[in-house]
C-alpha cells in the first residue's frame, strides 16, 4: 500500500504505479537465458524460453494502491469485473452463520497479483489449498482441482471473508500473512498469479448495503464494495418491528399502522360545505309538483358562441335588405300574359257588385275567382297601353 501523504512531485513518471515481483524478474531472466542457449542449437528454439519468460513476468505484476481508510467502507481485495451480486449461504470454511451477500469477481490473467485486505482488523483464519496440475485455467469458479485461498477478517463494525480460486499448475496462490495478525485495510495479505475468481462474502444481517452492480470494473484495494453508512428504509422498519415484538406490542402496533394506512388511502379530501351542498343530488319527491314538472320539462338552453351569433345576425340583415330593396316587376311573365289575353273581359254589374259587397255569406272561392279575373283584365289593359 502506498503512502497517501507522499508527494509525487519528485517522481519523473508519477503515472507509473506498476512494478514486478523479484520472483518474476528472476524467472524472466532465467527463461530468457534458457532461450539463448536453445537458440545456439537452433534459432527457432529461442521462443521456447522467451515466451514462458514473458508469461512469468506478467504473472508477477504488482501495482501501488491508495486505499480509503474510512471504517464505513469495505474495499475490493483484487482487480477484476463484478460478475454477480446475490444472497446465498457462505462456505463452511468461512464459519459465517446465516445467509450472506456474495460479490463474485472475475480477474484476467494479466491483472495485478496483489490480494488486499478488504477491511482493517484481525485475520480470524486464512487457509490455502493446492490445486491439481491438470487444472491449468480456472474456467469456472466451482470447477474441481483449482487452488483455493480463503480468509476471514473481522473488526468491531463488520465481518467479511473471501475465497480465491485459480489454476492448479504452479504456485498460483501464496499467503503472506497468518491467522491472528492485525492488518490495515488495503494491505497485501497474499499473492494470486494469472488471474482467476474471487468471491467476497458479507453477512446479510450486516449494517449497510452493497454499492456495486454486475459489470463494474474494480481496482483492488481502492474500489468500495460495501458502505456501512447506508441503511435502507425496509431494514429500519424491520428493526422497529423487532423492538416492538420484544416489548410485546408488535401485533397491536401493526394493526394500528395497517388501519391508519387503509384510512389514509380510502378517506377522500374534505370538501367545503358550499361545494358539497351545490353538488348534492336533489330529490324530486321533496319538491312541489310545479317545480318538479318545470325541472323535467324545461330543456337546457344551448349557448351559442358570440362569433356565430354575430354572423347569423349579419346574414339575416343582408337578406332583409335584399327583400326590401328588390323592385316589384310591373309586367307578368309571358305565360300569364297569354292566359290573360285569352280570357274575355269581365265587367261586373252594379247589382252584382253591390250584392257582392252586401252579401256576407257568398262562397269565398267565387269571390277569389272574380278578383283574379279583374287582376288579369287590368294587367291586359296595361299591356295593351304599353304596346301602343
UniProtKB/TrEMBL annotation:
What Pfam families does the annotation carry? PS_Dcarbxylase (PF02666)
Q: Fetch the InterPro entries from UniProt.
A: PS_Dcarbxylase, PSD-A
Which of UniProt's keywords are assigned here? Cell membrane, Decarboxylase, Lipid biosynthesis, Lipid metabolism, Lyase, Membrane, Phospholipid biosynthesis, Phospholipid metabolism, Pyruvate, Transmembrane, Transmembrane helix, Zymogen
Gene Ontology MF terms in the entry: phosphatidylserine decarboxylase activity
Q: Which GO terms describe its biological process?
A: phospholipid biosynthetic process
**Chain segments carrying region Disordered:** 310-388
Question: According to the UniProt entry, where is the signal peptide?
Answer: none
According to the UniProt entry, which residue ranges have a biased composition of type Acidic residues? 336-363
For this protein, the parts annotated as crossing the membrane are: 20-39
Segments of skewed composition (Low complexity): 325-335
Tell me which PANTHER family the record gives. ARCHAETIDYLSERINE DECARBOXYLASE PROENZYME-RELATED
Name the record gives this protein: Phosphatidylserine decarboxylase
Source organism (scientific name): Henriciella algicola
> What are the leading ranks of the lineage?
Bacteria, Pseudomonadati, Pseudomonadota, Alphaproteobacteria, Hyphomonadales
